Structures are given as structure tokens and as C-alpha cells.
Amino acid sequence: MPNIASRARRAAEPTLGPTPPHRSRSRATMAVAVLLVGVAVGAVAVSILDRRGESGAGAATADLFATEHIVFRSLQSGPDHGRIAYVEPHDPTSTRRLADPRCIRVAAAAHRAVCLRPGATPLQPYEVVELDQKLNPTGDHALNGVPSRARVAPDGRHFATTTFVSGHNYISLGFSTETLIYRVGGEVVANLEKFSFLINGEQDESVDRNIWGVTFSADSNTFFATVASRGRTYLTRGDLTKHTLTALRDNAECPSLSPDGRRIVYKKRVDPVADRAWRFHSFDLATGTETPLGETRSVDDQVAWLDSEHIMYAVPKAGEGGAADIWSAPLDGGEPKLLIPDADSPTLVGTT
Amino acid sequence: MYISVRNPQGTPVTSRAVRRGIPQTVLVLGAVSLLTDISTEMVTAALPLFVTVGLGLSPLAFGVLDSVYQAGTAAARIAGGFTADRLRRPKAVATVGYALGVLAKLVLLPAASLGALSAAVGVDRIGKGLRTGPRDALIAGCSAPEALGRSFGMHRALDTAGALLGPVFAFYLLTAAPRDFDTLFVVSACIAGLGVLLLVSKVREERSAAEGAPRISLAGAARLVAQGRKLRRMLLAAGLLSAMTISDAFLYLTLLERGAVSSRLFPLLFLATSLVYLIGAIPLGRLADRFGRIQMFLTGHLLIVGAYLVAAGSDGLPSVGLALALLGLYYAATDGVLPAAAATIVPPQWMSTAISTLQTCVALGRSLAAIIFGALWAAIGPGTALWLFTAGMAVVLALTTPALLRRPSEV
Fold first, then answer.
1. Is the pTM here over 0.90, yes or no?
2. Is A156 contained in some domain?
3. At residue B71, does pLDDT exceed 70?
């Protein structure tokens, strides 16, 4: 019995802890530990201090939705990084005016805006916040996943969000999206994954369907969105009351409908190599003709219309994580130009 | 207080080791895993946001990353186990594995493209693969044979606690410093660094066990598998049983699809499962020590059959809660218990290799299961797929149970 016990004890007590010759080693260990803690705490402190300063943000002015403005997310470093900002389209580089909410994605139309942002607790990691015409929050709803796209319908009755849902654990599902259409006030009126999807008049029954990037027409019942099914992407026309999505053409993502409802600009995959994957194309709904735009960089954004002949979109700045500028490009294939530096997520308001 | 336990021969012994508590090395290794898991999971939780907001890449790019996550582990696992045994330096190999975890977070700092990000994720997974087997061999080496289940249970509980805390850390860091991913990666690397430091300074490997044994070779590995009938059965059974498990993500989606739970509660499902695992790991490890580890391992799979049955009929929160509790208990009854069972039948000089190989069988089985379940989901729908897997698990369990329990002695 003592034999078993002592063997067990020996097994259970591996030689542990510093022995005298190791005293200097244990000091060194302590020093490295203190250094590591110091670096971590220091990094957080520097990051927080970096953001301190006088904020220029406040409630939006009354003219925001009354006259034309580009509403976007300001990425200038400092205390107002990530806040909603707006400028007049004819003078886009003038001093931007700032509103309080900080977002990951913002979209506005018809006297309201939605802001997709991190939630308040780890149990609600992301949320969509509805904003009134002064850009004050009127309500928030939990989002299931990382914010990706947002749009408000031109008549202001509905808005849409796309989030990127990732599985959590040993084997996850890879990529999946959730696209919801809400009535203003927060009621979810459609989960687009549940809509019937028609290709050439036939119902597609595949289960692994992903839908993203909604753009609304003027009546806000008809909308367009990307559907990915069986490894292909489709430009689809959706009907909110009939619960259908009808494929119009393939290889088209993140559509954006022109204010007159006649043309759509989307990104088309032109190269399977990820680095130069997409090119913006405009598509005439009446004639079915497709024209490439002059932007030759591969941009991953849902464009917004600046006027009837120009679109705008965000281009990440190379080598600077999280930094981006808003560019504009004409539909006629002309050169793109820088519109608003240090900004992304643009939409135009005050058009009607 | 004296606790009576059964030793491998079945006679009750009173062990001071059991009475005196869990070996300090196990606690230290648990703390190392806790820190490493906080570090890794805080990055994992922030990666989708980093990819879409920080890098401005499409969500689609993230699907590619996920497969990198999976592929890196299997080969590294066996290589890590074999190298640790061959050099007789499990601690050294484990240290390299944990150090790669630190490196991966530092690689993320200048990463501004998908390629660099994939490299970082790959390095992290290789590190995880390398360290798992040798680390478990260290746990086995310092634990009394009759308390292996409890030691592994303790380690897995701490490990799971880290996995739960990581996302919380990430959330509050990104609240304090919004979109500052660099700071998050620096903090993550520092936490992982503390783990490595703890491992290097506080864990001394137990050398006595394998001393005098011949140096291992690949031929020896073949002989071990060829002659070790118990080990062979265990490898086969673990692989087959794992090939009938539905990945957590798919099970949660099945619950979502049934309308048993709203998508708002989705993040809570993972939390609930992990909490049950965390709470159950030590008690079930102790029960495994007392009543047999293989028995506990098999019971765990009965529990997961129960989880699938409850999930298949679930229609509200109580049944969802029960399904998740059974799933968490399945992990508590199998994840640490399997290496504990293996540790009693494998010669000490083969410990790292055997445990790594066993875990590779489990991982490959689960990957296969995920592919099959995904295909079935698309072809015949989640409900039928769930029933097929439940039936499959019951059949495999019925076939493997007699084989695993063939010898009455503890396996």
C-alpha cells in the first residue's frame, strides 16, 4: 500500500518550481511576464488615448434630407472615426458635418437612415439602429452576424440588411448570409432565404442559397438582390408581396438601381483570381445591354447613385487596414475620380 | 478525506495522489491552454469583422479561410506527436506549437491581404496540431493512472473556459478601441506569450516513464498498431463514431430551421453547450476513473444520440436546452476521456503519437461527417439528415460497443 501511494505521489508531483540555481531564470521569467502585460496594457491605452479629443459631432441639421447630401461614414482618424457624416454633392471635399452615431455601415433615404453597428453586450454583438431625420436613434434590433450591406427604400417604408453569419466551432459551414427586409419600426417582413427562387421560370430547390445586397425600386415592393446558388450568382428581381425572386441574368453581385429605375450597376466577376475579381458593369433593364465602367480596380462594394450618370463607391486604401476613400465613376466608361477622402458607405439623400 | 478508487486490477486502493488533488503540472497546462484559448478565440471572434471591415474583403473570402483552418491541423498533429516521442521531448514540441500560436497573431499585424491572412490562420492551426498530442502526453505522464480522467477533465474545463472568455475579451476590447484590430492582435499575442512563458518556466517533463525504452521509429509505429489490438479498436471506433456526429454548427442550424429557437439566440447556443461541457468535464472525468473510461466514452455517444433525438422533436426552448445540455455532456464524457483511456493502454514512449493519432481519427471523422451532413442537408433536408445520422450513430455504437468492451479489464 505505501508503495502504491508513494509511486502515485511521485507521478502526481512532477518536479516543479524553481530550484536555487534557477533563481536568476525565474527573475527573467518574471521580467518577460511583466513586459508582456505592459505591452498589452500599453497598446490598449495608446489606442484609447488616440481617440480622445473634442468631437465635432451633434444632431443632424434640418437641411440634411431637404436638399441633396451624400451621407457616409467618416473614417478620418481621431474622436469622430466611424461616425455618420454628410456633405453636399457639388462640394464633396468641403468640411463634412458629423452626426453622433458610429457605424460599421450606414444607409439613408427619404428622411431616415439605418446604422449597422456593434451591440452593447457580447450576447448582442451586432445591431441595426433606425435613425430619424436628425439622425437620432429611434430603435435597435439584434443582427445575426457581421454587418455587410444596408439600404433604405426610396419611399422610406422599408429597409434591408445583409449580415454575414459564420458558424462557430470545429467545423463551420463556411460562408452564409442572412438578408432581411424590415418595415420601418423594426418588424421583419421578409427573410429572403425563404422566398421562392425562379430560374427560367422553374423553381430552384437548392438549399444552400445565399442572398445579399438588396436595392429597392421606387414603390418599395419590387427590389433587386444577388442570389448565389450552386456556385453561381444571379441578379434577381424580388417581389415583396409574392415572396419570389426571379433570376434576370447570372454573374452579377451587389446591384444598385438607378433613381429612374431603368438601369442597374452591379459588380461582375471577370477573373477567378481573387485579387482582380470584379468589375462594375451597368445593365439596361429594357434592352438587356451590359456596359463595363471605367473603374479597373477590383472593388467589392454595393455602389450608390450620385446622379443619373455617376455612381459612387468605397475603395479600401492599400496597406492601411480599415482605411478607405469614396470614388465616383461615370456610366460612360470614363475615368473614376476621388470624391470624398477617408470615407465609405455612401448614399445620396434629398433627391425628391 | 480518503477516497476509494479502483486501480486497473480492480482492487480498491486508497491513493494519496487522489486525495491530495490534481497534479500541479495539469493545472499549469490547463492555465496555458486557458491563456492560449483566450488568445485564439478572441482573434477568431473578431476575424469576420476584420475581414469585412478591416480589410474590406467580401464575406465570400471568409469561406476560403475556414477550409485553411481545417486542413492545417491533421498532418501537423501526427507529425507533432511522432516528433515528441522520437526526441522524447514532448515539452519542447508543445512549446514550439504554442509559440507558433503567438507568431500567428503577430503575422496578422501587417496582414492586409487574404494571402497573408490565410498564412496567419494556417500557422495558428499547425501550431495547434503540433502541441495537442505532446501536451496531452505531458498530462498523462504526470497523472496517477487511476486519476487520468480527472486530470484530463480539469485540463479540458480550463481549456473551455478560455474558449468562452476569448470572444468576451474581443468584444470589450473592440468596444474600448473600436475597429482597432492591431491592438486586439497585440493583446492576443501577449496573452498567448504569457501562456508560452508559463509552459516554459513551470512545466518540467516527466522523463522516467519512457526511460530505457528503445528509441521509437516509423516501423515501430506500424508494429504498435499491428500488435496493439486495443489501440487499433480504439482508433477505429473513435473514427467511426466521430464520422456519425453532426457538427455543432449544423445541429444549431437544424434547431433554427425547425423554428425551435430564434436566430437572435443563436450566439447563446454555443455558449450553453460550452458551459455544460465546462461544468461537466471534471465530474465526468472522475466518474470515468471510477467506472471505466471506455464505458464513459460510450455513454457520451449515447448522450449525443439523445441530443439528436431531442433536437429532432424540439419545438421550444426547454427541448432546445435539453438537447444542448446533452451535447455539452457528450463533449465532457468523450473529449478528455478518450486520451485518458488511451494513456492506460499505450507504452509511455508512444504516448504523444498515440494520442495525436487518436485525435486525428476523431478530427477526420468529424470533417467527413460535416461534408456528408452538408450534402444530405442540401439533398434531402435537415430533418431527414438528422434522422439518418441519429440512426447511423446508434448502429455504429451498437457495433463498436462489444469490440471496445471485449476485455473485462479497464481499457
1. no
2. yes
3. no
CB contact under 8 A, A171 and B366: yes
Question: Within a domain: residue A98?
Answer: yes
What type of residue sits at position B136? D
- Judge whether A296 and A309 are in contact, CB under 8 Å: no
- The DSSP letter of residue B27 is H
ipTM (interface predicted TM)? 0.81
Percentage of chain A beyond pLDDT 90 is 63
Shortest CA gap A319–chain B (Å): 6
- Residue B147 has a pLDDT of 95
Cell of A100: 453622433
Nearest CB to B54: which of A5, A25, A321? A321
Say what percent of chain B tops pLDDT 70.
87
Chain A residues touching residue B17 (CB < 8 angstroms) = 5, 8-9, 11-12
The reply to whether residue A148 touches residue B60, judged by beta carbons under 8 angstroms, is no
pLDDT digits (tens, 9 = 90+) for A66-92: 999 999 999 998 888 899 999 999 999
Residue A68 distance to chain B (closest CA, Å) = 27
Least CB–CB distance from A43: residue in B50, B186, B381: B186
Average pLDDT over residues B217-238: 87
Burial category of A33 from C-beta neighbours within 10 Å (exposed 0-12, middle 13-18, buried 19 and up): middle
Say what the pLDDT of residue B280 is: 97
Nearest to A169 among B24, B182, B249 (CB): B249
Domains of chain B, earliest start first: 21-206 (1.20.1250.20), 227-406 (1.20.1250.20)
User: Residue A242 pLDDT > 50, yes or no?
Assistant: yes
How far A32 CA lies from chain B's nearest CA (Å)?
8
Inter-residue long-range contacts of A276-285, CB under 8 Å, 24+ positions, other chains counted: A278/A253, A280/A311, A280/A313, A280/A329, A281/A252, A282/A331, A283/A235, A283/A249, A283/A252, A285/A248, A285/A261
Q: What is the mean pLDDT of chain A?
A: 87
Domain that holds residue A320: 57-349
CATH code for the domain in which residue A272 is found: 2.120.10.30
For residue B240, pLDDT over 60 is answered with yes
Contact at CB, A170 and B49, closer than 8 angstroms: no
User: CA–CA separation, A300 vs A215, rounded Å?
Assistant: 16
> What's the whole-number average pLDDT of chain B?
86
> For residue A26, is it within any domain?
no
pLDDT value of residue B66: 54
How many domains does chain A contain in total?
1
Contacts of A26 in chain B (CB under 8 A): 201
State how beta strands A232-239 and A188-191 pair: unpaired
β partners of residue B125? none
CA distance, residue A168 to nearest chain B CA (Å): 6
> Does A42 reside within a domain?
no
